[in-house]
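Researcher: Re-running this chain for the archive, since the previous output was lost when a drive failed. Same request as before.
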Amino acid sequence: MTRVSREGFRNRIRYLANQRGVERIARQQKVSVGTVRNWVAGRTAPSMRRRDALRRQALRAGARRAVQIRGPSGRFETTITREESLAAIESSREGIERQRALARRAAEETGSLEAVQAAEMIPEFSDADAIRLADGLEDLTDFGESDRYPGGWRQWERDYESFRSAGGSL
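Model: Regenerated structure tokens:
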């Protein structure tokens, strides 16, 4: 059995609720609809065994796998399970890889070794930056403000433009 954090569980149960509906989950788990709503809202959480079972159901239903981000020390510091953040990371990685492939193809056509090496050196926009942007967008959309972006929408838009120029998208 895998230990499932409360945040990870909440993100997985949200995914299942969006895919299958709260009523179906309640019937399957033999609990009330209110209990499932409390799980989705993060007010309560079931036993670790049930969390793990629901986590596996969400993965089988198509939820993205969690991404773990290493800190400067090399240890895992953050585990990302929120679907929106995972989509932002995936999109960022695909965009950068697409940009790198186009630059590599153009460089190979010129025959210049320096151009090929430059294409390979296109910097990556980190997963942490993609997550910060996705979380900031969610905060600004939901609450109109964000601790990550005290400058509000204008600051978020500037960061997003630099993210886009590096090949990422949300």
